Input
Amino acid sequence: QVQLAESGGGLVPAGGSLRLSCAASGRSFSSYAMGWFRQTPGKNREFVAVIRWSGDSTYYADSVKGRFTISRDNAKETVYLQMNSLKPEDTAVYYCATSKYVAWWPAAIPGQADFGSWGQGTQVTISS
Output
């Protein structure tokens, strides 16, 4: 079992930037894809970005493409989400997750069911 801990959330004005981090422990981090999701009250958890175990492939939701960048440091067992040009609609709790299966890569937009372990989430609030 892997444990995930997000950090880096906060309150920033529209147009600002934040970098989220997700530290993993307890299992071979470098063998699994890592994803970021977000959730607002009353809505389902929404896919944001995913990165391959090797770090050489990424995939983004259309809503964040060109503004967010996912990256990972396997030596530090950490995945990052750099968020630029933030908008009020980016306000949400952001969760990181590890894929259920080794070396998995999505054939379509990933869903929650593709991921097996989740962090506790970090709140991101963008003021207008």
Residues 38 and 94 are 4 Å apart (CA to CA). The mean pLDDT is 96.
